[in-house]
Design goal:
By secondary structure, the protein is mainly alpha-helical. The protein has one domain. About 80% of the residues lie in helices and about 0% in strands. It contains nine helices and no strands. Helix 4 packs antiparallel against helix 5, helix 4 packs antiparallel against helix 6 and helix 6 packs parallel to helix 8. The radius of gyration is 19 Å and the shape is globular. The N and C termini lie far apart (about 70 Å).
Length: about 250
């Protein structure tokens, strides 16, 4: 029972730490109930992703025979898994914010997607800590490692998708922004997966973690850019065009 409680605690605390850090970047705080919903959507996304990834494994396993094909298929799955996760997280928040009056600033796109990403990371933490920890020390040690790696990865990638989405909205090219955001987020996530999951070299794993930290630092500049934009998102996206003759 103690280990179970410790797993939940260690899965939750790192994400709350990142959550507080990112939310403080928003000068106009979002409604807490909606942030909770975004976090829960991130958790629910894990189940959806699991089903989709199982389907991907099934498709790949039926088309691979030779050892080299199996290796290539493993890399293909790792890459596909990253894009599936980013797409599912994005779609959940896109549905949540669609024509929602609280979505009134460009920075909101990043905030809600980061929250969903941390919800996803929380659920993933529980799964990892349960499956790869035998003692209390293992739980704490793995939780600390994931704090600066996988947890930050989900926040950074989701935030990146949100940044390009917001830029697309402001520039009246929403779908282009969404496409670029998902490609960028999925690409970074896939690169991280390949380097860490497919590599047995600790140095490469450490470099991957540093890479995510650096990307996270640059993403803070993106927060600053969006925070300075005064274009109301709801007006940019949803207001009907004005009659030029009026």
């Amino acid at each position: 029972m103690f280990i179970g409680f410790l797993i939940i605690l260690c899965a939750f605390i790192p994400n709350i730490a990142w959550l507080v850090f990112y939310i403080r970047e928003d000068t106009h705080p979002e409604p807490k109930p909606l942030l909770v919903v975004a976090f829960v959507l991130g958790i629910v996304s894990v189940g959806i992703v699991y089903v989709m990834q199982r389907s991907t494994v099934s498709i790949l396993s039926h088309s691979l025979d030779a050892p080299i094909q199996v290796i290539m298929g493993s890399y293909a799955f790792i890459i596909c898994a990253a894009f599936i996760e980013e797409i599912v997280k994005f779609v959940s928040i896109r549905l949540l914010l669609h024509k929602n009056p609280v979505f009134d600033e460009p920075i909101d796109a990043m905030i809600y997607l980061v929250v969903a990403g941390l919800g996803f990371a929380f659920a993933e933490n529980i799964l990892y800590l349960r499956n790869f920890s035998d003692t209390a020390f293992d739980v704490v040690n793995l939780a600390m490692l994931r704090f600066v790696s996988a947890n930050l990865l989900h926040a950074v990638c989701s935030g990146m998708a949100g940044y390009f989405w917001a830029q697309g909205i402001v520039n009246k090219k929403s779908w282009r922004g969404i496409a670029v955001g998902i490609l960028a987020a999925g690409g970074i996530h896939a690169l991280y997966n390949v380097l860490t999951l497919a590599s047995h070299n600790q140095l490469i794993v450490d470099i991957s973690i540093v890479f995510i930290l650096v990307v996270g630092i640059f993403e803070l500049r993106d927060f600053e850019k969006l925070r300075k934009l005064s274009v109301p998102v709801t007006l940019t996206v949803y207001s009907p065009p004005m009659d030029k003759n009026s």
